[in-house]
């Protein structure tokens, strides 16, 4: 494994995210994986918040659809979480092939 690939993978997250800002397709896929992980969890929090407001807002009829959407977001968050390692290792393999 190339040292520069390993080192960039060990950067603190903010530096890593910045280093991915101007990047090729492989790095963009990795960056999008990080963003998707964050965004799915953002959506989960938003749906939980909406569910908490259903009663007070007199919108109990929305509860079923909100719970369904929450479950979909939770499944997607689990999928992204389960695939971060795989995407990262594929990115490293891609970088190694490009360098060869
Ligand atoms: Fe989502």
Concise synopsis of the structure shown:
The protein is 80% helix and 0% strand. The chain has 100 residues and is mainly α.
Would you write up a description of this structure?
The protein has 100 residues and is an all-alpha fold. The chain has one domain. 80% of the residues lie in helices and 0% in strands. The chain is built from 4 helices and no strands. The protein starts with a helix and ends with a helix. Bound molecules: fe (ii) ion (FE2). Fe (ii) ion binds next to helix 3 and helix 4.
What order do the helices and strands come in, and which of them pair?
Elements: H1 3-9, H2 13-19, H3 25-53, H4 63-99
Bound molecules: fe (ii) ion.
Output the keywords:
80% helix, single chain, binds fe (ii) ion, 0% strand, disordered N terminus, 4 helices, mainly alpha, 100 residues
Portion in strands: under 5%
The ligands bound in this entry are: fe (ii) ion
* Overall average residue pLDDT: 84
Poorly predicted runs are 1-10
What is the global morphology? Answer: rod-shaped
Q: What is the count of DSSP helices, taking H or I runs of 4+ residues?
A: 4
Order of helices and strands: HHHH
Helix content: over 70%
């Amino acid at each position: 494994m190339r040292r520069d690939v390993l080192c960039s993978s060990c950067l603190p997250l903010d530096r890593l995210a910045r280093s991915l800002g101007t990047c090729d397709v492989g790095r963009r896929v990795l960056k999008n994986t990080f963003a998707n992980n964050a965004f799915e969890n953002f959506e989960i929090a938003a749906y939980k918040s909406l569910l908490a407001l259903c009663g007070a807002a007199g919108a109990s009829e929305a509860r079923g659809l909100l719970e369904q959407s929450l479950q979909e977001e939770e499944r997607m968050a689990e999928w992204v979480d389960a695939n971060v390692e795989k995407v990262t290792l594929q990115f490293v393999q891609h970088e190694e092939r490009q360098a060869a």
